[in-house]
């Protein structure tokens, strides 16, 4: 009897323990099924999470928080880089500046696809301005004639490129990289990117994603479908073919776009404060992309050598013959100096670099301190009268005349025409209410001393030109039917600034600058449609997925 009681007690106890563990289990019971619906999704072969691979030429930069702005003395009294705390997401950045060789690839492709005889203005609009080397009191014709195309300068950073051209290069690079990826994965005909390309069927990433069947001129011989799944036998014994599919964003193989880095991204990557990190603290703020207060190397093997290419004094661009401190008098080949702690080369010196931002004297950290960027112009795909997306063709291409009279193509055949977002996208939104946000809180009427808080929106739109916060000169340069430039200059004496919506930030010192400008926090501005012999650029790409793949460590 006693044995039976003990057995029953043990049985009851085991049942209670089993139920307790079942009720306290923290694991999902939806293994092999959707966690949303409970449906069996194994048969659909849901795409497993893929790690983003670095695009050609890119280096991974893990994001984080940092002090954006100058922490040294502001001897120029610009007061345009007051320190603020900012955070940037992880991203990728070019290991070096874009070189002459890389840019010549772009020129060769444009010239072969868009014949200069048929597409006037397209090729001429992307060619760098080689005349930037000329100087009224200097002989620089050697660089004017040779710097861009001579193989001796192939690995030197490209210059003479304005901001607009740099943005167009990044768009072209996006399409060529994704075109090669799709070809490698069997979604495009092999070698079609070089053998079967013309102005009517040029590949564009966004056009492919939106309508693969009409991409590359709608050729099914070039745009291929890959079989998905297995052939299935029906009840009557006949076999159905595997379903053909195009690549999509969910395929995980198409790269995000190449673009210019934002000012915050560039400064964060250049400073590379992770080299002075211990746990979750930076041990001091760097003055240059390298550690230390000096521009010369302290290492035994290279002691005394300059760590960047910059102007060392009046009439001194590279030291004495036979013992040149920085090994260059103009620009130098990329990777001539040691990289910073992110593995990026020439983030100080050699050439200054364009970034994406429109210039304003103040970084508005009160409004935003995450992925800060000024210059958002939100657009959407243009829908034609037939209800379909409008693809750019030779007939509807748009051209712009720059302030110097140069004509450039606004878009290229094969791309999707864009229009500003309207009330359909902005109505009742709290995060944005219009397409153009360049002047938000710094340049719009509300931020001007002339703003009347009792006035209506209609009155604000009628504001006088001289009452604008940034009333820069309004020059008007057009081209007549004969191709001659018609220049109308603004000679008003009431202009008070050169800052406007077409002024872009450039960062970093160059071979023409003194050491003061090597500080990553320094910021200057230049018209987006003009070029110089000391401004180049490099591209960036956003990171998708987790912030980092590696586990955290006490030190970098």
Automatic annotation (TrEMBL):
Domain of life: Bacteria
First and last residue of the signal peptide: 1-22
Annotated keywords: Signal
Domain Sulfatase-modifying factor enzyme-like: 56-369
A GO molecular function held by the record: formylglycine-generating oxidase activity
Pfam family, one: FGE-sulfatase
Listed NCBIfam families: GldJ
PANTHER family xrefs: FORMYLGLYCINE-GENERATING ENZYME, SULFATASE MODIFYING FACTOR 1, 2
Protein name as it appears in the record: Gliding motility protein GldJ
Species in which this protein is naturally found: Flavobacterium seoulense
